[in-house]
Records
---
Amino acid sequence: MTQLKEIGVAVLGFGTVGAGVVETLQKNGELLAERLGLRLVLRGVADLDLDTDRGVAVDRALLTNDAKSLIERDDVDVVAELIGGTGAARDLILQALKLGKPVVTANKKLLAEHGREIHTVAEENGTELLYEASVGGGIPIVKALREGLAANRIESLYGILNGTCNYILTRMEEEHLPFDEVLSAAQAAGYAEAEPSLDIDGHDTAHKAAVLASLAYGCIVPLDKVQVSGIRGMAAADIAYAAEMGYRIKLLAIIRGGADGVEVSVQPTLVEHRHPLATVSGVYNAVLVHGDIVGTTLYYGRGAGRAATASAVVADLADAALNLRAGGRRRDLSGVHARTPVVFREPGGIVARHYVRFSMKDQPGTLAKVAAVLGAHGIGIDSVMQQEAPADAEYVPVIFVTGKAAERALADALKEIEALDGVIDRAPVRYRIEDSD
Amino acid sequence: MTQLKEIGVAVLGFGTVGAGVVETLQKNGELLAERLGLRLVLRGVADLDLDTDRGVAVDRALLTNDAKSLIERDDVDVVAELIGGTGAARDLILQALKLGKPVVTANKKLLAEHGREIHTVAEENGTELLYEASVGGGIPIVKALREGLAANRIESLYGILNGTCNYILTRMEEEHLPFDEVLSAAQAAGYAEAEPSLDIDGHDTAHKAAVLASLAYGCIVPLDKVQVSGIRGMAAADIAYAAEMGYRIKLLAIIRGGADGVEVSVQPTLVEHRHPLATVSGVYNAVLVHGDIVGTTLYYGRGAGRAATASAVVADLADAALNLRAGGRRRDLSGVHARTPVVFREPGGIVARHYVRFSMKDQPGTLAKVAAVLGAHGIGIDSVMQQEAPADAEYVPVIFVTGKAAERALADALKEIEALDGVIDRAPVRYRIEDSD
């Protein structure tokens, strides 16, 4: 084989993903060299902990505690940041970019919180930032949005982006189990963190939604413009009622662009069984994209895990290497710096049907009172389902499916209903319904 | 807005797709310029017929009969070939490549039949060929295979790649209609050609399968190594029997790589209802890709049509433009020239379970005779389903689901069964079963 050009790679962070990247380069390095016509060569792996067994054999000489010096080496052309978080990761990314070295990262939190700074430094230094692994694990969704669908105005994006939440919701539905029990099982199985808030409260999904929205609309998305609610404490009953009505509940990131701006939200959402996202089960992720030219497209795969994430990181390393060989970065970063400023709609403006469950006093007239308040706020009622309750229960569950209404109007109506005397005994549960149209 | 670099585009062929490309450049040209930091400028549209209304307003001065001169113009940087076929299209592509101009094409037939020649000329002239639109319409599956999944050894690919066939099969199943009636309706609705052979006999799917296999395995795939059977004349009864057993019948391209080579085939295949491809309905396409690192990924969208195809063509134009700005092509063409030669398994080697329907003499002992022949060829039987027939029928339909067996072995066994005296009255129907595992 002829001598191929070598591109030196530094891996920062020797945790799960870092080890997966090293393993992938070892396993498929030859194949990659064939495909690319150049060779990705691992120059070093930096981590504070060099003793833990990562399940991959690496020459000790490649391991270092000193990430800064590794980045500076002349034979390091590309840097993969796989440390996570917004501390050392940010410093090291900025260091590499200032040296004009392209950076590959899986760090959605950093992108969501410090995207503007990092993109700006990349641009100022004529280099690039690649982040396929930050959303959807091994699914090449960033590339699809950035390149494959470049000809399209993105009308909307619907994503199941957090495997932990989807695993919990899938098991709750399939096995009729309560939230706490499934969360504990997921923690035991390693599908959920001991401190699960980032996942189950929707923040991880929000970070990913911000990344996708920035790609779709060419802008930095301020996290405070993202409306977030998670799945913590979801009642098994709501999953069962939704199923009876022909719906599954999924934690969806929903991004919609329109004449009056872009709206980004993360919330548990009812989708019909025939909806393309309804059948995405367990730890899988999927993104449904509506483009004005292409129509509907869908991307599906494992959303996390050592190997799937490594697949995305190595694809980005390959892209960076090809761009270096071609004489520089290929895209300028206008992809995330729209020339026309993007307006974010205030949360609450999304118009949708809703599932609302009240715990309602079991006596004549209460239903009429609730319906009257909804009506006064312009919210129609598509259906009402009253559940049977024990004979002596004072309050019974009643489920309303509303007509299309702005979330803000519904929130106002529900507040008013809560204030009614002796009608309901606790805050109603409400979820958006995403119709397939 | 600052003056952006302009990339001149020539569109060859002003048919459905050509008009879609012109329309997309008009509609989203400004957005593209923002995203790319350069401007795609239409320099001309060549077609022999300049009078037919294409539903898109184009300056007459841009229209020409003279494709050759258009390609030669100094201000034409990229050429989109949307003529189709293997005559003028081939000549014009070669002309452009020899001038060092990148070519974007949607022409799977040309790629499948003349891929080696065209790739070689592109390589010799230091330019590139982009063909996202050749497979899966607007789904960025070529980019996913070529770039997004670059780190993966591709284990297998399963594709629904022909919208016409999928539309026919979907309607046959959902409305219990016979093949001929649905084909006529599809022709009337413009979903099938007056001469439907390219679609319904599987050739179009085979061309696309060859393109996907070439991307996955870095080689040119000779069409005579692709086993092809289509859906012409499929019996409504088989679709109904399959449904009873929990399967749908889809025309699948199946590409599998293994230690002993690569196998490419196109055939009607039974997939379980829960299989990810089972729910792909109507004119939609989908590709399921198994990579050794990423695991399972799926790509779904409209497989054909003016707009979806235009989305892919314009994405390729954008890529070519970015590569030109970066100083040249970005990938060498090793992506389709594997350094290790690829062996193609002879058709018939794929091991699978099968659905086989016999029209079997309704008398004791015939079932045993058929089972004995299968057994003698090492083919197990997973289940047998005998259908009720009119009381006076001499032959009744009997369906076998075989155990896993090589297709070759099954073909031999069936030939032997056909030769049995008075056991079956016509050639058995057989389809592969693709289990979800």
Note: Chain A touches chain B through 63 residues (CB under 8 Å).
---
Amino acid sequence: MSEITILIGQSGGPTAVINATLVGLIMEAKKLAPHATLLGCHHGIDGILHEDFISLSEVPDTLSHTPGMYLGSVRKKMPRLKEAPEQYEAIVNVFTKHHITHFFYIGGNDSMDTASRLAAYFSLINFPCVVMGLPKTIDNDLVLQDHTPGYGSSAKYLATTLQTLAYDTAIYPVGRVTIVEVMGRDTGWLAAATCIPTYYSMGPDLIYIPEIPFNFDSFTKQVKAIYQKKKRVLVVASEGIKNEQGEYISSTGALDRFGHPQLGGVAPRLASYIESTLGIGTRAIEISLSQRGGSHLLSKRDYREALTIGRHALRFGLSGHHGMMVIIKRKRNSPYKIKYQLISLSKVANFIKSFPIEWMNVETMIPTPSFLEYVLPLVEGEVKISYEHGIPKFAPLSTSMPQKLDD
Amino acid sequence: MSEITILIGQSGGPTAVINATLVGLIMEAKKLAPHATLLGCHHGIDGILHEDFISLSEVPDTLSHTPGMYLGSVRKKMPRLKEAPEQYEAIVNVFTKHHITHFFYIGGNDSMDTASRLAAYFSLINFPCVVMGLPKTIDNDLVLQDHTPGYGSSAKYLATTLQTLAYDTAIYPVGRVTIVEVMGRDTGWLAAATCIPTYYSMGPDLIYIPEIPFNFDSFTKQVKAIYQKKKRVLVVASEGIKNEQGEYISSTGALDRFGHPQLGGVAPRLASYIESTLGIGTRAIEISLSQRGGSHLLSKRDYREALTIGRHALRFGLSGHHGMMVIIKRKRNSPYKIKYQLISLSKVANFIKSFPIEWMNVETMIPTPSFLEYVLPLVEGEVKISYEHGIPKFAPLSTSMPQKLDD
């Protein structure tokens, strides 16, 4: 075997298990290619362009369950070749200089687009470097795969948190309408997962997702009906719910760097609508960033799959598969069994896997038992982690050493 | 011993361990007075007035770590005797009818006021019923005691969550100013606890508490200084921070039922101030209700003390101590040792224990090592709980049976 230099990057938003996938890649590389050089680039493709590399031959023990992103992230997406050929050439120059033979990129939709473009360019110019994508996204919205690493842990965090909120908001004989906003710009996978406590103990009464057009009149009627019965209502809404015209309920009018509309404030918007139409007291809650990094509340299955997908990707990459990503396919539900397989990056990038609308009961606004069957295996099991000083013990990030109080 | 009928009520907001205190009372009653009648009143003193009682002789196994309040809560505070003598008489009538000999009320400041008034009235008319208060509040603001049950678990939840947010917000080379609002209307105990990850890994850069007058100019300077060094800032602010004139930064002008000003939106207020003065991107996060019921992330010490304080209260009550509450005094720090003792309810009700300003370094806006020494034992240890269907397994609340999807 000729000399191997493996480069790994992370991109997009964090998940609770994105560092587990990184550790999976590193573990398998040490096993299958013990003499390979193992590098990481800081801040995704930006780190390539700036040659901001670190060695990954030694990583901290606790890294696999550390939140955030060990290598840092980047908001940048690779432009089209014809728009910026110099960026492609710059990357090839850096890869040549550092003898990179294998490049693994862990990310979501936008990152898979970048990996896909790089892979196509390398093929075009016959550049001898394997490019492989590894999925991660709490949104669970990558096509042609059963689910994505990161989703199960965020789903577990949200289901657990919504159960707690259901208990908390049940303390008074007459309560309020509590509206909880969860992530999900395009899809309702995360919001839907909060139905688990609704089925088994206490959870949300109504769940609104982007795939079902949001109608303020129906919303008011549905809230009113439940309030009349229970004297309190717990609502979950995806940040990306849209009206019948396809406009975001929460749109601020601004666009982010990737041209996606910037969202904000679904919960306060719905809350003030209910106050003005029904005159019931409300509370708006946005779960925000903590839902994507709850490393103290990992799904064991998600954690193990995130590690394993890293190992499989390394193996597939070493055998020369190029321009592909590793995905999870579910073979059966009971007992739950999956397989890892390869798919072309170009088939995944820029597509979105919507929540199947037949999995939402639009009368009750609660996902159906078929969805429950889908999601339960993904939130299964807990990971025991170490605590020190009363808080979880994590690895320091390679991009930012722990802050010191005196510096 | 003559016939004993014990009545227990809960009041105020939930803590993650308020049901542990209830279980402690029940366990000790079964041990010391096995023939006593054990009752709970739903929704605090409202349940007394409506004779809404349930038997507590059998409670679910998982109750001690179930969030919310098993008996429900009430927003009502006992009026002064001369304002509503009929309410006092009504309570005595109900107690007489049900032969209540011991009344235990678990709550915070307002609830201790109610217990204190009832106790004084019973003494005044020589009514033979013991009244005993049991502390619970995540705010940790009851005077003459080292700390209150509930604080340690919320402190652990917040310290853990802020550590995760510090990791999450560190992923980009240039980040934002993230402003996180935590509970604490009058005191900074909860906000201060988020310094734990700042000392040991990554946590908030600046912590603002109600005890230190908030100045927008100093705030801007402090944020700017850290941003220049780190290119990101993580700020924690208590909901109750006030300006030099003592006015709440977030005051909406409205008052709640107890006449306290209603607060809302410190984080968005500070975020928009930073955007307008420094032109840096911000994100506002409000942790909201989940910080008071994180039963999946209990402090083992807090949980055990909450149980034990229930047992001590029962024992003190059975020996006839009246008009008192059980409090925790710390004897020493290493090894940590406390004692449970009695104090008159009237000495606690309506006073507020402020965060000692000498425990805040007003240069760095980070609590001092002396506070760290105080808080670390309170967040120590984890409680292993059972999970089912991927979420924590809790007891159904006695006030609201689990909802059914078809009802």
Note: DSSP finds eleven helices and 17 strands in chain B.
